[in-house]
Amino acid sequence: MKKLVPDASKCTGCRVCEETCATAFYKKKDRLFSAIRIEPGENDGFDIAVCDQCGVCQQMCQIMAISTATNGVVRLDKKTCVGCLVCVGECLRNYMFYNDELPAPIKCSACGLCAKSCPAGALRIEETNHV
Amino acid sequence: MSDNCSHKISKDDITRMKAAHKRLATYSFEPTTIERGYNNRSLYISIGGSFDASNQDKLTASVSGENCTVIGEKAVTPHMKDKFVGGKGFGLYHLWKAISEGTRWNSPENDIVISPGPLAGITQYPGAGKSLVCAISPLTGIPVDSNVGGFFGPFLKFAGFDALELQGKSDEEIIIFIDGNEHTVTIDTAPLEAVDSHILAEQLSEMYASTHEDKENISVISCGRASENSYIGCLNFSFWDKRRDCVRLKQAGRGGIGTVFRHKKIKAVVIRYRGLHGDLNNPSKKGLINAAGVRLHKEMAHLDTSQNNMRKIGTANIIEVMDRYDLLPTHNFQFGAHPETPKISSKVFIEKYVTQNLPDGCWYGCSMSCAKAADGFELRTGPYKGHKVCVDGPEYENAAGLGSNVGCFDPHWILEANFYCDTYGVDTISMATMTAFAEECYQRGLYNLNDTEGLDMRWGNGYTLNELMHQMVTGDGFGVIVGKGIRQQKRIFAERFGKVSPEYEHMLGGYVWNDIKEPVIDMPIPTSHFNKNLENCEFLQSTGYDDNKILGEIKGTILENAGANNDSAYIAKPTKPEKIEGIPTITREEIADWPVGKPYYSDDPDCSYTNSRPWVKMTPEQVAEMEEFGMENKGLEYSEYLMKESLAQQGGYALCNKGPQHDEAWLIFMDMVNNQIPTFEDKAEALHYFPMFRTWFGLLGLCKLPWNDVTPVNNKYEKEPAKIPEHVQNYFDIYEGVLGKRHTEVSMVRQSERVYTFQRIFILRMGSGQRKHDTPPSRSLGPITEGEYLSREERYDAQMKDIIGIDPCGKSTAEKVKIIMDYRWSQFKQLVDAVYKRRGWTPNGIPKLEKLIEIEMDLPELVAVIRPYLKEEGYWPQGEEYKKYE
């Protein structure tokens, strides 16, 4: 099982992760193209919203554009996706994002680029044998 | 997924079928770009035969093929978009142009129009894949509209057309194929393919897809064999269920459009479109659509389980709710509940039949996901006996209609009937309501086993329910009469199934009339089930038609047959006599003046069953009796909600343009449970707003269920919670998102009013559409028998005392029935007055000229239809401004 594990207590809110993600996948610096989102916390600090690969979205995808890879990462095939956004609605924690300029939702693939770029060490990729 | 395909289709079969095709016509069209929901053109196909398509107006491009086939295009004009919007509006518009006043359902010019509407095909908002289908109905003789899911409508639009017209009548079986990527339309003869939909849709998905994966890009419109011998044919629109790896079917059920389709000898219309994505409508403001879609998706994800359970069981979630509120139609709308309802509750279907946890949308993006299905369902009867199939359903209407309303409380039989309705191409709702009518006639003794050739028409025989449909396929047997619908049943029973008067008995020459004494029971029926049924047989015990002898006979027969072998054969059919000398043969025209009780021979080209035996006319009393409880209006069978205690719903049904379908107004809960519309004016307002609001869905290509089958948490605090205002705002958002214009409630209702009023005038043009045609059967208004009264005696006595102001003490039940029914009729008449007034119609139900002017529908062809009626009724307006309409 491979997933991105955030540690919000370390987050400084620099948003480098957002820019890294948006740039890598959509060649945009706009954070609204990122699969990871940093929001101010309710009291202080920051909340990190990113997919934990739970797979709930997969069950409701009618055209089967979402599948779980052998390493446990829940992947969205953008070519198959018809942009219905049901998965965005299904995501219990609101960790699936969409952008009106894109034909398909924005889904974290646990690539780890953001973790590498995080200057505060608030993000890491966790790989376990449990799938 | 479970085994759904007992019918394996081999590559060789497909090759053989294709080799037998003969190309009749090929048409190539230019690709278009959709602009804000519209292609601005429609596809016109005349499938030839004797029909001359040259009269068709304004074909912008066309090609003529063999057998007089014509394929062409028509422009969708700004006028059409402005006045008719799309969907049902375009359907009625094209139909109006295509036919004349004399057109009947089987006239070659009858035009099947399929239109998806400008919002159809968006994937982001639930329920946006609807097609609306219009044609002149065989049941009603007036235009009918029916909405349907499946992939065809969106694919048609993305292929390049806002509507598809099918006119003419072919001499040979044909398949029409629209290729949305190659931009071609072809017509081929197709002699070898199946007709029944569950097989044909699989065959054609296989045939027209280049690979297995390509099947998701195919949609098929088809019917079934029972469409051919009945008036209740439906159209099946297919969609590929990727998870189940099989074809699914959704139905344009109401009004017999499938019968028209098969009469034209169209086997199927197939469409292929590859390259689907969410922006193909070229929307104006995509952000509005996305935001509204996600809002509703979230509501579904969070609220459905605690609200309606649509994702688990679809509309069938309300079976037990309807029973609890005394609204579940039972035994032909006599009652609203039954002790055996738990046997067919939604829980039973969820736990035993319907496959769970699948995204069952009939178009992409439907998080409501109500298109449920039972997989691996093994059939007990008919040509597919023993096959395991996928049953699309049960929807509420199927469970209530084919269940409680016909008295069947066995979930297996309901699903089996549901399956056969679909694959044979008949409407489940009409099938249910007209079977219930036939059953009640039988149990009132209006006909007997001899007339049904042994078919047991008592309540709840699941075998009979399915056998009726098998007979519609073969075209032989009592099922053929049933399949003509209640209006025709009443006529046929009245002409044929009377009793011979003693003075004419000698004419029979010794022919034994009643030689069948035992019903056909082909299946083992648990003794306990029927014993219980009979002891609680409310109808037999309480309606005054109780006959101990009949009851005894029924008990005896059932006990004898209980546990009979599954394969037991038919009990002998009656001997059809040689023609009896001395009984004259008369023409159909002479039947009207023929004496009651005197045998005669005649024939009926529409229904030849029993043509070979002597007929006897029923008494006028019997004919009047059938009118009381034959649950049809305008020729269409009632859908499956008990409306007796809701005056607003009685109006909702009777004043529905096409006939009694609840898609215009479903007001039972507002009216009788929540008491939100107490006065006539309130009800009239509801019977104005809701039909208009609901019509709007049909103009745009939307499903109504996502509007009110989930409600926002704060809805109860809204000023008018019944309208679900937040969802109405969603619709304004997606409308603006696609078309770029903002609606208000006023402008939305105005769009609908135009088409709704147009439809009413269309009906008038076809010879119906006056007040007398809106008159419902008595049973829809209240208890017409003592049995019905006594079953809810406390309620009716209280109403008599508290509302009517008459003390029920000391009155006989018959007297009380009359008092209640007289009161109900007077209420209904006042309601009709109020609704007509609110809609801008005269007391005779004719739209006023002033109304047409107000809604900017003062088109010359419409004014020409209403002018004579308005003048006759004295409602033609005076004044200089109206002179130009003279």
Q: What Rg of chain A, in angstroms, do the CA atoms define?
A: 14 Å
Strand content range of chain B? 5-15%
What is the spatial order of strands in the main beta sheet of chain B?
1-10-9-14-11-12-13
Q: Give average pLDDT of chain A, whole number.
A: 95
Annotation field: number of helices of chain B: 33
Describe the structure in your own words.
The complex is a heterodimer of chains A (131) and B (886). Chain A starts with a strand and ends with a strand. Chain A is of the alpha+beta class and 131 residues long. By secondary structure, chain B is α+β, with helices and mostly antiparallel strands. Chain B contains 33 helices and 18 strands. Chain B has a seven-stranded mixed beta sheet with strand order 1-10-9-14-11-12-13, with helices on both faces. In chain B, helix 23 crosses helix 25. About 6% of the residues of chain B have low confidence.
SSE diagram, text form:
The complex is a heterodimer of chains A (131) and B (886).
Chain A: E1 2-6, H1 16-26, E2 37-40, E3 46-49, H2 56-59, E4 66-68, E5 74-76, H3 86-90, H4 113-117, E6 123-127
Antiparallel strand pairs in A: 1-6, 2-3, 4-5
Chain B: H1 11-19, E1 22-28, E2 41-46, E3 59-64, E4 70-75, H2 78-84, H3 88-98, E5 112-115, E6 131-136, E7 143-148, H4 152-159, E8 164-167, E9 174-179, E10 184-189, H5 197-208, E11 218-222, H6 226-229, E12 235-241, E13 246-252, H7 257-263, E14 266-272, H8 286-303, H9 310-313, H10 319-324, H11 346-352, E15 373-378, E16 388-392, H12 396-401, H13 411-424, H14 428-443, H15 449-452, H16 462-474, H17 478-482, H18 486-496, H19 527-535, H20 538-542, H21 548-561, H22 620-629, E17 632-633, E18 636-637, H23 647-654, H24 668-673, H25 680-700, H26 705-708, H27 725-739, H28 745-765, H29 786-791, H30 793-804, H31 813-839, H32 849-854, H33 860-873
Parallel strand pairs in B: 2-8, 9-14
Antiparallel strand pairs in B: 1-10, 2-4, 3-4, 5-6, 5-8, 6-7, 9-10, 11-12, 11-14, 12-13, 15-16, 17-18
Helix pairs in contact in B: 2-3, 3-28, 8-27, 13-16, 19-21, 23-25, 23-31, 25-28, 25-31, 30-31
